[in-house]
Design brief:
Keywords: Hydrolase, Plasmid. The protein is an alpha+beta fold. The protein has eleven helices and 35 strands.
């Protein structure tokens, strides 16, 4: 490698720094902004008046970054979530604009609470889901923000995975997985009335998603692939069960729907092709979307809005430009830049992410992205196959700190949406059922072979790297095909699917049937798909990182394979982060991991490393 030809080295401290500002939220009247930003090294909640520089901290936690915040409908308080040491048992807190002592609205030890309906039209109360009654079941609770009272509103009968409130802040729809694995959409006519099945959807059609109720509460908007290849936006008439399609794409799933906050009408819907593509579903949104597209060449999403839906906050980003936020007036079609999330990266040239397609060994068409180092000839490069987690998720076009870090160090970065990834319709999703170490794994090898055949990748200098399922994919690649990769990096990946499924968080229990259908259910089969039982075949060096408090992939998953590797005399570095859960949230841990991983890759593939 001729490192002199590469663009200037971007410091890890710049690439992996917390955004200076992010997650902007407009107050109900549009006069103020709440956002997340660092406070003495940990992300906290800030507010400021629009058009002024009176930024101030209203919530902080010296022990852990705060991941989510939202205005209360009164415009005088902010709500936020926080867990303990990465255990994902979130509590909902409320704090005033002067930053006084926050109130824990869900003070139940060991419980997990998540927002269900925070509606500006109901400023004094909201709905949350919480497993206070039974650890495995998320019930609905009604919270009075002023008094802090927290009352059980609906008990989960044991199979409900999703709830939805109507426009009167009454829960009137739910999705359950029923006996046999199919899904049922249940509704009720009014609060307190009996639940009835509105529709039953086959497991192969995928779990439906509930979007909203129509303005008059007579129709339910949902996303489902029933009677279609890909997830489409439909509306159910509650009285008759009649279904009408509101928007669909023949090949790609509908992934976003914007509901007007004042009228509750559908404004627009989006599908994620190579990039996110919006389609207006009302006359007013046709004009707005045109002006959005003229604003920025990248992608945009609607991050927030006021009580009446004007103005909005737009989040824009691209592969070579980190996120920025605009305040947008729908009345005047005028946008004002609020801030860049990562202004420290604007001085650097970032690498472009190119969409790619190729055929798997069995002919299935696969899509993904290739990011090449700036300044190097795109041939014979050391290459990192970067595998997404989930696995019911997908890689997407846009700014990614990990991708930019690897490309800046001189690596071609290959990402593939292997079968089982979401976004490409139900047939593609179902093609991954029970194929965690089968066709999903060979799709990744086919991606590697495509990059080699196309001339981009040096076959002797390929690595595989991923988190969660991506970590598992790293272990399986090295265990099943020992010569395919020079080295691997596994972050919080399961090593034994029997112990993984036996120790899922209790609130995943209603999803157990889904997991069994998509992963497997018999011990013999699960062990046949587990890299722990093929550890003697692993010869490539490994770097493994694990959060000690991970509730999804327990520390045991990494402990047991590290022990087995060491007993077999294999090279493995093991990093344990005592204050982390499923991933790395703390800035100091992320920086440390990047430093170790960068040196590991440089040692085995020959890329650059920051001194």
């Amino acid at each position: 490698m001729t490192s002199d030809a590469l663009s200037p080295l971007i410091p890890r401290s710049a690439i992996f720094a917390d955004p200076e500002m992010a997650y902007a939220q407009l107050s109900p009247n549009g006069n103020m902004l709440a956002y997340l930003a660092p406070v003495e090294g940990k992300v906290g909640v800030w507010v400021r008046t629009i058009g002024q520089e009176n930024d101030r901290v209203v919530a902080r936690d010296a022990l852990r970054p705060i991941p989510w915040a939202q205005w209360q409908g009164d415009g005088q308080h902010v709500l936020y979530l926080q867990d303990s040491r990465g255990d994902e048992n979130y509590h909902l807190f409320r704090v005033g604009l002067l930053g006084h002592e926050p109130m824990d609205l869900t003070p139940v030890p060991g419980a997990r609470a998540l927002p269900l309906a925070i509606d500006f039209r109901y400023p004094d109360e909201g709905l949350i889901t919480m497993n206070a009654r039974t650890p495995s079941l998320m019930d609905v609770h009604r919270v009075n923000f002023a008094t802090g009272s927290n009352l059980l509103d609906i008990e989960n009968p044991g199979d409900v995975q999703l709830w939805l409130a109507d426009n009167m802040l009454q829960v009137r729809a739910a999705v359950a997985q029923i006996a046999g694995g199919n899904f049922a959409i249940r509704v009720r006519d009014v609060a307190g009335s009996e639940w009835r099945v509105l529709d039953e959807i086959a497991f192969a059609d995928g779990r439906p998603r509930l979007v909203a109720f129509s303005p008059d509460n007579r129709f339910l908007y949902a996303i489902t692939a029933k009677n279609a290849n890909a997830d489409r936006l439909v509306q159910y008439e509650l009285s008759s069960g009649a279904v009408a399609t509101r928007f669909e794409d023949p090949a790609y799933d509908v992934v976003k729907v914007y509901i007007e906050p004042d009228t509750r009408e559908i404004g627009a819907a989006a599908v994620l092709r190579d990039r996110l593509v919006w389609t207006p579903l009302s006359d007013s949104w046709a004009l707005s979307l045109k002006s959005f597209e003229a604003l920025d060449a990248g992608e945009f999403s609607i991050a927030s809005g006021t009580k009446n839906g004007d103005p909005l906050i737009l989040q824009c980003q691209s592969d070579t430009s980190p996120e920025k936020y605009f305040l947008y007036s729908r009345e005047t079609c005028h946008a004002t830049l609020l801030f860049h999330c990562r202004p420290n990266l604007l001085i650097y040239t970032l690498a472009a992410m190119k969409p790619i397609t190729f055929s798997a060994g069995d002919g299935l068409r696969l899509s993904g992205y290739l990011t090449l180092p700036v300044g190097l000839e795109p041939q014979g490069l050391p290459t990192v196959l970067y595998v997404h987690g989930g696995p019911w998720h997908r890689d997407r076009w846009g700014f990614d700190p990990v991708v930019q870090w690897l490309a800046n160090r001189g690596y071609a970065v290959l990402q593939v949406n292997f079968r089982g990834s979401t976004g490409y319709g139900k047939a593609f999703l179902n093609a991954g059922n029970r194929e965690w170490a089968g066709a999903m794994r060979t799709d990744l090898l086919d991606a590697r072979d495509w990059a080699i055949k196309a001339g981009y990748a040096d076959p002797a200098r390929c690595a595989i790297f991923g988190m969660s399922y991506g970590g598992y994919a790293t272990l399986t690649a090295l265990a099943w095909t020992p010569d395919a990769f020079r080295c691997g990096i596994d972050v919080v990946g399961p090593s034994d699917l029997t112990t993984f499924l036996a120790s899922i968080p209790p609130y995943w229990e209603p999803m157990r049937k889904l997991l069994e259908e998509r992963v497997g259910d018999e011990d013999a089969f699960l062990k046949s798909q587990s890299p722990l039982y093929r550890v003697s075949s692993i010869s490539a060096p490994l770097l493994i990182a694990q959060g000690a408090n991970d509730p999804r992939v327990k520390k045991r998953e990494s402990d047991q394979i590290v022990q087995a590797l060491r007993e077999n005399g294999r090279e493995v570095e093991y990093l344990i982060y005592e204050n982390e859960g499923h991933g790395l949230a703390h800035q100091e841990n992320l920086q440390h991991f990047a430093e170790v991983a960068e040196s590991f890759l440089a040692r085995h593939l020959g890329g650059r490393a920051e001194p």
